[in-house]
Design brief:
Layout (H helix, E strand, L loop, with lengths): L4 H8 L12 H4 L1 H9 L12 H4 L1 H57 L2 H10 L32 H16 L2
């Protein structure tokens, strides 16, 4: 009675890699027939489409559309950013030009306000001339007492009382 090597290995837990009986030429002719008989033939099964696989093309299209939308938004934001950077550089250039013009005008203003330019404008445009010693005239003033005293009028008692009453009413704000 021969022990099948597969059952032998099943109980002894040995590996078939070291089974040298498989390489024996006398048993080799019998062995392939046994293997063919022992192995069952594979059966072909038809896979039916399930509900989960039916929605797969829609999910792929949705994900592709989502990626496309994100990519378009990314490109749009980059375009907006480049437009804003272009505007910033244009405004920076205009600002630098304005600063240069301001410096030029400031230098021109400082040059036009100098004393020499004012004198030249007064002589040429307004027809003025510098003051000479012959044009100066001195005025002498009397240094004595220049005040005069007013005469005192003699008033009667009624005029004094009337003046006093009018002064009191004026003081009170009437």
């Amino acid at each position: 009675m021969a022990i099948n090597t597969e059952t032998k290995h099943q109980y002894t837990r040995q590996s078939t890699a070291y089974d040298f009986s498989l390489f024996d030429t006398a048993q080799r002719k019998e062995r392939p027939q046994k293997q063919e008989e022992e192995q069952p033939k594979p059966e072909l099964k038809m896979v039916q489409a399930s509900a989960a696989k039916a929605g797969r093309p829609i999910a792929v299209i949705f994900i592709a559309a989502l990626f496309l939308a994100v990519f378009i938004m990314f490109l749009y934001s980059k375009a907006q950013l480049s437009e804003i950077n272009l505007k910033v550089s244009e405004e920076s250039a205009a600002y630098e030009q304005a600063q240069i013009l301001n410096t030029q005008l400031q230098n021109e203003l400082n040059g036009s306000v100098s004393i020499d330019n004012v004198e030249e404008y007064a002589v040429k445009q307004l027809g003025m001339q510098k003051v000479n010693n012959s044009q100066e005239k001195y005025v002498e003033m009397n240094t004595g007492a220049m005040t005069e005293t007013a005469k005192e009028d003699d008033k009667n008692i009624f005029e004094v009382i009337f003046d006093w009453c009018s002064d009191a009413l004026e003081y009170l704000g009437f």
